[in-house]
Amino acid sequence: MLLNKVSGADLMLLIKKLHKWLSLLVGIQLLLWLGTGLFFNLMDHQKASGNQYRQKTVPVHVDMARLIEPQLVLSKSKPVVSLKQISLLAQPYYLLTHQNTLYRHLKNNYSLVHAYSGEPTVINDVMAGKLAQSSYKGQGVIKNIIKLSPPYDDIPREKNDVWQINYNDEVNTSVYVDVGSGRIIKHSNDDKRFADIFFMLHFMDYGSEGSFNNVQIIVFAIFTLFFSFTGFIWAIELGLNGQYKLSFTRKKRKLALFDKDNQAIGSFEVTTNSNLLDGLAAHDIALSSTCGGVGTCGQCKVQLNHNTKITSADHSHFNDEQLKQGFRLACQHNVSEVGQLTLLDVTQAKKHLLELTHSEFISPFIKELRFKVVGDYRLRFRAGAHMRFFIPAARGVSIPQRLPEELKPHWHHIEHLEYQHNACSRSYSLANGDGQSADGAEELVFTIKIQNAANNSVLPGVGSSYLCNLAQGQTIEAVGPFEDFYAKSNSNKTMVLIGAGSGIAPLKSILEEQLLNTDKDPLAKRSIYFFYGARAEQDLLYCHEFFQLSKQYPQFKYFPVLSQPSGDWTGARGYTQELLNSHLEAINQLNRLEFYLCGPAKMMTDTMKLLQEKHVDASNIAFDQFTQ
Ligand code: FES
Known about the structure:
By secondary structure, the chain is of the alpha+beta class. The chain has 15 helices and 27 strands.
């Protein structure tokens, strides 16, 4: 299944790349068509024909009595397909065709016999010059006469040998005479040659075949077919991703709300194509969520009609009895599925307007964002809490705006993409505590990693990208803080904080809260070990600050570890869980430790496995779901 998903994404990526390159090719040719078509409309057609100095030859009077019998001519000739009497230079000739093709420009085989004398006649340079002159009315004189064999630039379709008679007039006229029949094939000049360039571009006749029925056009037609086909598939994908939802196609339905005691608390209209979590949020009812609505945190619990379908995420968060009672995850069900809903906790749904006061890269892909609450109040929360941001529908970009020059090399492999995303909500942990002060926190600090797309077929992190591109002074709505992850109070066990990447936020918050408590109450002193992993030196967040704190507070010990350090790195190498494993026994008795985890999925899984193998009691492990 995973393999199918990966190959499907790769195929989509290939289709998009193909579509882009084909669009370039097709686009260039369309521009050429437009430009050359415009030229054809505006050009002087008389000039472009090349016949500026061409004149008709005067028909000759034939003395029928002097003509020799055609039968006599035929009897002396090699096999003939047809015989025709013609005039050349005021003299009658029999034109004998020995090999005939559909058109005169294709390969033919002729011979000429004088119709009075019966003498075979060959078109030589002198006669070719006279024939050309008889068709020419300009002031120029003949410069030269050249015998040529195909192919010819001026007459690309001609397949027979020709005489080229060149004049020294102001437009460099050339007259072409058929070597076999003496026929004036064409006049050409500089004006026609210039127009021919546009014909070549317009008909894609890059091989000078003199026809639009050429291989380039066939290849171009195939490319255009693929261009349409890949565009069609891409459009379907965008449609499935909800990119083409028009406002008038969005249906709404009434949703009635009840509290736990089955008391009606109102009803409102919600668009049917949103999930319940986002639908409620649009009406300022914010359910707790730390997974951003992907169904893993299990916090957006509501009660629906017991007949409502049960998703796999519902199964993993509710027991059979709860499912029978209609408990479901709001993020996993669409508004279209339900008509009424019971809120289990109506007290948390307060939205706050936050104003960005500071935004700064603290590693190549992670920003520290500082907000203040708009209004005359401060928020109170326990360290480790998170807030849920309401990201409005907007145009997103894959590479952050205002990216510092020195960080650009880290982003060079990311393709610049612009995309439209729908409104959604995303949760992020606070990186500071409110210090449990009476009036709450003055500012709210977040460390947010800008999530890049795994490939071009999926959108980059919509929430992280939107927040990290906010400009100072801009505002955004959020709910919370929600306190699902926090330090146990009244415990004197040694704290072991384990984190990686931007999972540092709630751990930093808890650490600062604990050390601050020590300042206020020395009896609250607990040993704290912090194992923090990153990829390279530039990804180690707040490293200097943590070392400073470890000097200031002897009970705090900081253990950074890098998985891909530079050669200068003298600290631990590897992964957080490996470093933890090597120190675990030395810290304290396992039952005297409390573990707090927050980081990428692999780190969380490996650490949980390690702690289970060590038989650490689950009650001593707290973790923050991390959805990167
Ligand atoms: S499970 Fe629904 S928001 Fe996390």
